[in-house]
Design a protein that fits this description.
Elements lengths: L7 H13 L7 E7 L3 E8 L2 H11 L10 E6 L4 E8 L10
Antiparallel strand pairs: 1-2, 2-4, 3-4
Length: 96
């Protein structure tokens, strides 16, 4: 049986993202990819305003991750989107 094998900090990032995901914005997630430095989400919404609301709702989901980058494009009946969250680089030590 397969399972998730993620470093703890990546698993915590994913859990934080899922906890912040807004229930009130209807969307479909087609692909979710997680590694040590990136969380990528591909999916679809019914209108472009929903994509913008999703980005706003998730932009500060964790202090350890940067605001998402991504885009959306219209298909026949929906707007597909991609969102990429990158881990925030560690703060530089004073004097380094």
């Amino acid at each position: 049986t397969g399972g998730l094998d993620l470093p703890e900090n990546s698993a915590m990032g994913l859990l934080s993202l899922l906890a912040a995901w807004p229930d009130e914005i209807p969307c479909r997630v087609d692909r979710l990819q997680v590694d040590q430095e990136t969380i990528s989400v591909n999916g679809a919404v019914l209108e472009p305003g929903a994509y913008q609301r999703l980005v706003l709702a998730l932009q500060d989901f964790s202090p350890d991750w940067l605001e998402p980058t991504g885009d959306t494009s219209r298909t026949r009946d929906e707007y597909t989107f991609s969102l990429i969250f990158k881990r925030r680089p560690p703060a530089k030590e004073p004097g380094s």
